[in-house]
Amino acid sequence: MSNIARIREAYEAWDNVKGSNRAVWDHLLAPGFEFRTTLGSVEGSGFKASYRPDELDEYFETLRSNFEMKEIAPTVVVEDGPNAIAVFQSEWANRATGRSFRCEVAAIWTFDGDQAVSCREIMDTAGVACTLP
């Protein structure tokens, strides 16, 4: 299976559970997986800029408890050697305020064999900030 197929499959599975179960990612992530996100720059969001493997549950719990996933839909996934870039439509609603946002997100994945060793997520932080209390 190509990295493109792995990424599409994981995002589709995550969309199917509407972000409620992070286990859909477990098979894809290498033991030393590192995750970075621009969400860490949004003051008051509860997110950090980066997460070590032992902190991923914290990221997913912050996301799940504060936001309701409406949609994750990959529109473009390209691969170049060990790197793959996914661009997808994303829609979330803040559970506390009910305000929602829709944006494109880019995720830059790096693989070692069939497992991801890192991901850097870049999204519309202003859209997220507008939903906060």
From TrEMBL:
UniProt xrefs under Gene3D superfamilies: 3.10.450.50
InterPro entries: NTF2-like_dom_sf, SnoaL-like
Sequence ranges assigned to domain SnoaL-like in this UniProt record: 8-117
Full protein name: Ketosteroid isomerase-like protein
Organism this protein belongs to: Caulobacter ginsengisoli
Organism lineage string: Bacteria, Pseudomonadati, Pseudomonadota, Alphaproteobacteria, Caulobacterales
